[in-house]
Design a protein that fits this description.
By secondary structure, the protein is mainly beta. It has no helices and five strands. A hairpin with a 5-residue loop joins strand 1 and strand 2.
Length: 83
C-alpha cells in the first residue's frame, strides 16, 4: 500500500512513530518521509524526523486531515473616481 500524507507510520528500525507530514523526492532517487511524533516526553515534544520511505510501515491507514489554511481577506481601499 502506498504511503499517504496524514497516515500514522512507524520506522521499522527505530520504532519512531507519528504522522507522515511531508514526502520528499531527492535527486539521488531516494524518497524520504517526515514523521512528526505526537508523544510528549518530559514536557517536550520531539522534533519530526526524516526516514527513507522503505523503512516506514503504516500503523493506521486512516488519513488525518486538517482544514486548509485560508489567508484573511484584506479590506479593499476605496477607489477614486476619475474626474
Amino acid at each position: 500500500m502506498a504511503l499517504k500524507l496524514g497516515q500514522t507510520v512507524a520506522d521499522q528500525v527505530t520504532g519512531f512513530q507519528g504522522v507522515l507530514t511531508a514526502l520528499a523526492d531527492h535527486l539521488t532517487g531516494e524518497r524520504r518521509g517526515l514523521v512528526a511524533s505526537a508523544a510528549i516526553r518530559d514536557g517536550f515534544m520531539p522534533a519530526a524526523r526524516w526516514f527513507d520511505v522503505r523503512r516506514l510501515q503504516i500503523v493506521k491507514s486512516e488519513v488525518l486531515t486538517l482544514k486548509p489554511h485560508v489567508e484573511p481577506k484584506t479590506p479593499k481601499s476605496p477607489t477614486k473616481k476619475a474626474k
